[in-house]
């Protein structure tokens, strides 16, 4: 079970609309359950660095089956995951903006958003999660 390109585009569109409401250009990445990129969109004037950061946030959320902001405390010095962000070819992100996308309790993909303050990235990414959940309820999503 994996996300398809059309569904990823719909999630990105809804996410971009929230970024416009926040007033911050963002880069939005949607990955499959293995963290491989399905689609990515860079809004006009979004930071170039956000291209790789958003992709890595989606990778992290998919690879670890959790939102990236949940890794912050555990990866501080002295805690059990200290240094986590230096592993996996430095693709692990330990700050907010990456969320898994679930279907039937299973992670089938992830979204990563970068371009603003962490709180903005989270707010915008959460719009993508909401769009995914709406698409699920309409039955217009992943291949089975």
Class by helix and strand content? alpha+beta
- Proportion of residues in extended strands: 15-25%
Distance between the termini: 5 Å
Please identify the top-level CATH class: Alpha Beta
CATH A-level architecture: 2-Layer Sandwich
Please bin the fraction of helical residues. 25-40%
Please give the order of strands in the largest beta sheet.
2-1-4-3
Whole-number radius of gyration? 14 Å
Q: Give the domain tally.
A: 1
Q: Count of DSSP helices? A: 3
Written as H for each helix and E for each strand, in order along the chain, the element string is: HEEHEEH
SS elements, strand count: 4
Biggest sheet, in brief? 4 strands, antiparallel
The CATH topology name reads: Beta-Lactamase
Mean pLDDT metric: 94
